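Please complete every field before forwarding. Incomplete forms are returned to the sender.

SECTION A: IDENTIFIERS
Entry label: holo-299
Bound molecule: S-adenosylmethionine
Molecule representation: SMILES string

SECTION B: INPUTS
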Amino acid sequence: MRTDGDSWDIVTSVGLTALGVATFRALETLDPEPMIHDEYAAWFVEAAGEPHFLQKLDEPAAGTVGLFGRFMGVRTRFFDEFFAAAWQRGVRQAVILASGLDARAYRLDWPAGTVVFEIDQPRVLEFKSKVLDEHGAVARADRRAVAVDLRDDWPAALTAAGFDPRRSAAWSAEGLLPFLPGSAHDALFERIDSLSAPGSCVATDDFGRGMDQRHFDMEEKFFGPNPFGNLNVHDLWYDDARADPGDWLAQHNWSVHRVTPFDLAATYGRPITDLPAELPAELLDRLRRASYISAEKHR
Ligand SMILES: C[S@@+](CC[C@H](N)C(=O)[O-])C[C@H]1O[C@@H](n2cnc3c(N)ncnc32)[C@H](O)[C@@H]1O
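SECTION C: PREDICTED COMPLEX
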């Protein structure tokens, strides 16, 4: 389903996945004990008008969030805390790679003087800016949208937007990696490394690549209907060879920390204890192998 140089808007192809995760952030925000607060997410879902996600938002009954939604809450909080830890260490540049409908530039309490760069495809960023402008939202940092494809020369676009490689930066690549072909995936980390001054940090989630139909069917059987409706997200993933991000960073002068979503959920007071008992071992193993990685570049 993917081709070199393919592009999308917010309701097609990879763009639709950004709308999907925003929907689950909106639902998590409505939870009586939410792990995160993203009041902006619902605006995007309403403005996009995509029927499946609109319907999910209209029925935020208990249990709608499901396992996938809980993982999304965990994930959002992990990256929120990553950026807060970075600014507490004095980092004042953030680069959100594949920002999609991430509203952190508006949601988080960035210290004065912070610049937040958001990189994504042009039509995704246009949609996002339009919705935020229509609602009169005001960013809490100097937000700069950088419309460029992450398979292209994005470092040139980022530096043209004012990124300063002599100053430390906090990078996030959230919900991105399997959507990149192996060459762009490996180049992503090489480029982050070469643009990172000492003291910089990076966070990403390693949730696998390529998924065979068997696993997909198992997920539906045990966890209920596909949270993305008719979209089989795995059709948009690449499964070609690539470096392991944590190993690669560790080999390139970064100290690396890995944590599983299960451990994080427990840390956040929302342990995931209700996995179906009869879950096949290979699926359980796949879930447990997913990890969140944060790394800091040595000084
Ligand atoms: C699952 S969404 C995640 C969005 C956001 N990081 C979040 O967690 O809400 C994947 C995002 O990756 C972006 N993306 C994927 N491949 C890309 C590429 N080659 N260039 C630019 N953006 C890309 C999509 O446009 C989409 O916004």
